[in-house]
Amino acid sequence: MDYDVIVVGGGAAGLMAACTAAERGKRVLLLEKMDQAGRKLRITGKGRCNLTNTNPLRDTLPHIGSSTAGTTKKPGQTGGVWLRNAYGRFFAPELMEWFERRGVELTVERGNRVYPASGKALDIFLALINELEGNPNVTIRKNVTVKSVETFEGQATAVILERGERIACRHIILATGGLSYPTTGSTGAGYRICRELGHTIVEPVPSLVALKCQEKIPEELVGFQLKNVQLTVCGKAFFGEMTFANDGLAGPIVLSASRMASCTLHSGETLTASLDLKPALTPEQLDRRLLSDIDANGTRIFNDALRLWLPAELIPLALPQLHIEYYKRLHQITGEERRRLRDWLKGVRFTITGTHDWNEAVVTQGGVSLAEVNPKTMESRLVSGLYIVGELLDLDADTGGYNLQIAFSTGHAAAEAV
Q1: Max Cα-Cα span within the chain
Q2: What pLDDT is recorded for position 1?
Q3: N or C: which end of the chain has fewer CB within 10 A?
């Protein structure tokens, strides 16, 4: 059978690309290396699938990053600008309508995050795969690994499978994913294919991932959650919830902070993170509160009185760093010691030495340079008929549904172009 388009990879971007092309009457071949498509999609959002965010476009774009946005190659420039055209045609409202037309009820939760009302990522996957399996123009082949893309005079002509089979087609959508969660099939093979075709690959690093720190985390703190705190990394502050891991920091604001830190950490450098335990208070307001509490509890020993300002689990972390004798009565605390306590509460310092590995990273930072891909069509500027979508691109975003929207929108744009 001849095909109008071959889609390589059955993740979010690949499934949406295949659905869109088939809906427009194209003969589609979907190649998936695993025994089942959509493995990563089915576990995303802790199995709940935060598929998009209802923030308006202007508020969404700053959440998306790239090392090579547009053709400017300015590190850190928002990748949202590069996506503006694709988002203008298929954004959160269109995506939500797509799933609702196929019987998936959706709900909007805190932070404008959109989930299936059932709380099951499986419903999102089934809507996509059922669309394909019910279309006679679609062929799905599983347990198939693409080794390379064949070209002739700058035009894509075929895919070559690992076992030597050649499948001819002049439109090929690469949607093989990045390197995060490799057990789901994301092994970075697409980067190798694109590099062999002449594309520049921005070195991939784990993103939205826990951070390792030099300081020893007390055993009592491992798994403990802090709410309404502020973590500052690389000059940017993140407010919300975090937890402690046995080797560092984890939780929502840490994952977001990792986007700022990962490239630096993976170049061998270390960073300092500052944790504000009392972000609602200015240093002056906190100082006045400490004075008031000390006056009212002057006979309590310092070790016990710390629970006036800290959860008990944080005390083993605080005492060695404050250098205040734990058996001192509060009325014996000097002004310098009180200011030391104040400054610690407003800025607990951690030396960040690295990130957790690909098995825990939510997304990949880095990938195919955006300067080499047409933002309207996702077509390679180096190889005609080759389209590059999803996590393969040098695009990544904060948590909140932004990364899946990138996958769906780029997959949709490529299929529209085909």
Answers
A1: 86
A2: 67
A3: N
Handedness of CA 18, 171, 394, 10 (dihedral sign): positive
Domain 5-205+363-417, CATH 3.50.50.60 — does that match? yes
Whole-number average pLDDT of the chain: 95
Name the CA dihedral angle for 76, 81, 82, 86, rounded to a multiple of 10 degrees: 140
Distance separating alpha carbons of residues 284 and 282, to the nearest angstrom:
5
What does R_g of the chain's alpha carbons equal in angstroms? 25
**pLDDT above 80: residue 74:** no
Do 53 and 92 meet the contact criterion of CB atoms below 8 Å apart?
A: yes
C-alpha dihedral sign at 357, 358, 362, 367: positive
In this prediction, residue 78 has a pLDDT band, given cuts at 50, 70 and 90, of low
d(CA 336, CA 338): 5
What is the Cα–Cα distance from 299 to 303, expressed in whole angstroms? Answer: 12
pLDDT of 69 higher than 60: no
Please give the pLDDT value at position 30.
Answer: 98
User: 131-141: per-residue pLDDT in tens?
Assistant: 999 999 999 99
What's the Cα-to-Cα distance from 255 to each of 13, 160, 230, 242, rounded to whole Å? 23, 37, 13, 9
CATH of domain 283-346: 1.10.8
pLDDT tens digits, one per residue of 324-335: 998 999 999 999
The CA distance from 213 to 261, in Å, is 12
User: pLDDT per residue over 9-38, tens digit each?
Assistant: 999 999 999 999 999 999 999 999 999 999
Position of tokens 């959509």? Answer: 38
Q: What is the pLDDT of residue 249?
A: 98
Architecture per CATH, 210-277+350-355: Beta Barrel (2.40)
Start-end ranges of CATH 3.50.50.60 in the chain? 5-205+363-417
86 exposure class (CB count in 10 Å sphere: 0-12, 13-18, 19+):
buried
Q: Measuring CA to CA, which residue among 368, 411, 410, 402 is closest to residue 61?
A: 402
Q: List for the chain the helix, strand, coil content (%; round to 5).
A: 40, 25, 35
* CA torsion angle 325 326 330 335 (round to 10): 40
Q: List where CATH 2.40.30 sits in the chain.
A: 210-277+350-355
Residue 70: per-residue pLDDT: 41
* Nearest C-alpha neighbor of 30 from the set 4, 6, 2, 3: 6
Pick the closest to residue 277 from 325, 235, 317 (CA basis).
Answer: 317
